[in-house]
Amino acid sequence: MVTIEKLLKDGIEIIKQRDYNNPSLDVQLILSCLFKKDKIYLHLHRKDEVDDLLAERFYQMAKKRDAGYPLQYMTNLQEFMGLEFYVQEGILVPRPDTETLVEKIIKIVNNSDMKDKTIKILDIGTGSGAIAISLAYYLKNSVVTAIDISDIALETANINIKKHNLKNIQIKKADIFKEDFSDNKYDIVVSNPPYIETSIIKNLPVEVSTYEPKLALDGGKDGLDFYRHIVKVFEKIRENNAILCVEIGFNQKETVTKIFNDVKIFNKIEVDKDLGGNDRVVTAY
After folding, report:
1. Which of 120, 139, 143, 240 is least enclosed, having the fewest CB within 10 Å?
2. For the chain, how are helix, strand and coil distributed in percent, rounded to 5?
3. Domains, the chain
4. Distance CA 214, CA 212 (A)
5. pLDDT value at 19 more than 90
């Protein structure tokens, strides 16, 4: 039998350092998942022996991680906005950068007369439901509709709604490129759409290029297909004084702002940076 300490050391040796991983943290998270204990437990029980089956499972997971397989798909877990989300293969893993988008909307609502009324929010391309569920959770006066064309996204988002026991959110299967949404009006439309240029995807880190869904990444030849269409949808479904808030790629500030300005319906457009200092969120009023 091996000890937890040996697994921690062996795992770090197996998992090589790449752009998107921290071997020491990855190893601790894999072991925490297998033991169903927190990281503190691992350090307090470093000398404890581990049964052979669990050790074998650990080595398999460490090798898989070394091949670039996303850790979140192994643990089925990702934290976002202080909440735990179930994730699985076929779903874009929620990123910390996207919290900037959610925080922006919460700030707008709490600093305006929106906080005193029921607000209707539409999340386009919800994936795991991270954005929509976070908004429904933190904005108790919201009624959130989240749409996606992916069956696995709908399944995952519904799991997360149940996980957080939310009643003010619903998930629907819908394709914004094919369906007419003009029957319903919304106060806020939010989206983290696919925005990577088709030709660039193959050059991304293996975690993303090989394992995450192309459907959630590919924004077309110039990465802007979804922005052009989302703004057209927004024109049809906006309430008076509605807001459109989207995540963008770090180099898309000028192009997305121009797309929004060209429709001539907005009074003001703001751009917010993420914690890394990159342009990340465009909000149009």
Report:
1. 240
2. 45, 20, 35
3. 2-67 (1.10.8), 89-284 (3.40.50.150)
4. 6
5. no
